[in-house]
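Issue 218. Parser rejects a valid record. Input:
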Amino acid sequence: MSEYQYYEFQALDRPLTGREMDALRSVSSRATITATQFLNHYNWGDFKGDPSAWMEKYFDAFLYLANWGTREFRLRLPKGVLDLQSAKQYCYGEAASVRVKGDHVILKFLSQDEDGDWEDDGSGWLSSLIPLRADLAEGDHRLLYLAWLLCVTAGELEDDATEPPVPAGLGDLTAPLEAFADFLRIDDDLITVAAERSPKLGAPVSGQELERWIAALPDATKTDWLVRLAGGKEVQLRAEMLRQFRESRPAKLQRDSESPRTVGELVAAAEQLAEERCRKEAKRAAAERARREREAAEARERYLADLGQREATAWRRVDELIATKQPARYDEALTLLCDLRELALRRGSTDEVERHLRRLCGEHAKKPTFMQRLRKAGLV
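Output the parser choked on:
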């Protein structure tokens, strides 16, 4: 299998300048480079850039895929829309990490599976994952909890480690969140078990709620936001405002009466769920197999009953097929002969079949191909 590596970067908050695009071009002459994207794949050689440095300087999203099983996804957000300490509750270790660089928080998610099958060129993944950035900026922490489950899946946490706060809506993942779990190969059963303590998502934010909240804000805060909005350069201002609004309301997390589960408890529950699902699938498969066998047996009975009504015609058809001297027709004749013998066995009388077989052997003894097929079928 030849080597394959896929790199894609996206700039979301601002386009790249001409000077920046020239700098990227100096690294790769083959890449697709626009004001918002760098995309390239490698079948030989390696990427000459530094994804960490590029995320710090140019881009807001990055995806990497290699055919030996490595998958990586990164997001960069302004510090004002993602609280570092909140993110650190979920992201630590190699599989999921978070760091600050300048005015940004950078999240990194990594999955390695050298035993997995490779049948994906990487294209399309990043566009399906990018909406997660806006969701996270607006206070949706389901991505962060899935990142913690990624650490569990990777075996980076001790069994007695306890889970972080469980956000609402884990049982109703959006398409981008499902893509995130799929791309990074987070165990589905682990997600299902984790979602058991996840409250339902609340109703969408209403305009009246926002109006009351904004009206109660200090004048200095509202003035600051309006000035920043008029400046037109802070594209994440709306997300920052919505995050603060959501933080002003009681968080919908797991019930206070329930103590956090441990990694060992979650993994054991996921394994039990997987075993139960396998048993159910095996039971369904057995029932389906029995149904098909029953239908096949019933169809066979109907066919033999019909054959018994046209037995004389069937014997004439055998003679016609053999007379063609065509191997394919021989096979058709042998199938019909086997059916006629089975019909006779069911009736408890094989004399007529044996008589016809002796006649056929006598008439076609000089046809070695046909005689060989007769012997192989056990008819003589």
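Fixed in the parser; the record now loads. The mean pLDDT is 89.
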